[in-house]
Write a structure and sequence with these properties.
The complex is a heterodimer of chains A (116) and B (115). With 116 residues, chain A is an all-beta fold. Helices cover 0% and strands 51% of the residues of chain A. Chain A is built from no helices and eleven strands. Chain B has strands spanning 3-5, 10-14, 19-21, 24-26, 32-39, 46-52, 60-61, 64-69, 74-79, 88-96, 103-105, 109-114. In chain B, strands 2, 5, 6, 10, 11 and 12 form a six-stranded mixed β-sheet that branches. Chain B has a four-stranded antiparallel β-sheet with strand order 3-9-8-7, with no helix packed on it. Chain B has a two-stranded antiparallel ribbon with strand order 1-4. Classes of the chains: A mainly beta (116), B mainly beta (115). Chain A binds chain B through residues 31, 33, 35, 40-45, 48, 50, 56, 58, 88, 90, 92, 94, 96-98, 101-105, 107, 109-110, and chain B through 6, 9, 33, 35, 43-45, 47, 50, 52, 91, 93, 95, 97-98, 100-108.
Chain lengths: 116, 115
């Protein structure tokens, strides 16, 4: 079945450590996104990518980094520079382009990151 | 930059009744998509309904329908015959079409359906 997979579901990080969240999709989507969700804040865009080897900063990119070496994969690294990383992280993908009709974003099940 | 505003942080409705969730957005684009996503306690995001901006007809999906007012930049969601399973966070979202497909969300409305 096609879909988008995030791992792990729960992740614990010590202060000062970098940690990488995995996101893989087999939907053949060009676009992928990372969002952070905090209570009362909705979904805030961290990074997005529309094509392999290219990505753009979203609204809250500071303290995060991404790569897009393969179409299927868009890992997110939470660095030690992110001062308040405890949150729920969602990855999404979508089809893109002016010829694409009925597009929608498909989401993974999320990763809950906690700093201990 | 596009922004999406949901002015109702929380709402409640009695089972079997109708409720409307509000959403406004700001954009200078002419071609775009609007979405309503549902996030139940499992936190899985589920697409409820989609509207293409070039379509004048309001989208409907079973008990869910929208009131799309392009000139007013308004996109409300109506849930008819509310069910307990409709209890969830609801997010309105905007995606520009045919260019930089950045997907932008509002802050959400927490809907509770009471028995």
């Amino acid at each position: 079945d096609g879909g988008i997979t995030q791992s792990p579901k729960y992740l614990f990080r010590k202060e000062g450590q970098n940690v990488t969240l995995s996101c893989e999709q087999n939907l053949n989507h060009d676009a992928m996104y990372w969002y952070r969700q905090d209570p009362g804040q909705g979904l805030r865009l961290i990074y997005y990518s529309q094509i392999v080897n290219d990505f753009q900063k979203g609204d809250i990119a500071e303290g995060y980094s991404v790569s897009r070496e393969k179409k299927e994969s868009f890992p997110l690294t939470v660095t030690s520079a992110q001062k308040n990383p405890t949150a729920f992280y969602l990855c999404a993908s979508s089809s893109t382009g002016p010829s694409i009709m009925n597009t929608e974003a498909f989401f993974g099940q999320g990763t809950r990151l906690t700093v201990v | 930059a596009q922004t999406v505003t949901q002015s109702q942080p929380e709402m409640s409705v009695q089972e079997a009744e109708t409720v409307t969730l509000s959403c406004t957005y700001d954009t200078s684009e002419n071609n775009y998509y609007l979405f309503w996503y549902k996030q139940p306690p499992s936190r899985q995001m589920i697409l409820v309904i989609r509207q293409e901006a070039y379509k004048q007809q309001n989208a409907t999906e079973n008990r869910f329908s929208v009131n799309f007012q392009k000139a007013a930049k308004s996109f409300s969601l109506k849930i008819s015959d509310s069910q307990l399973g409709d209890t969830a966070m609801y997010f309105c979202a905007f995606m520009r079409w045919g260019g930089s497909e950045k997907l932008v969300f509002g802050k959400g409305t927490k809907l509770t359906v009471n028995p």
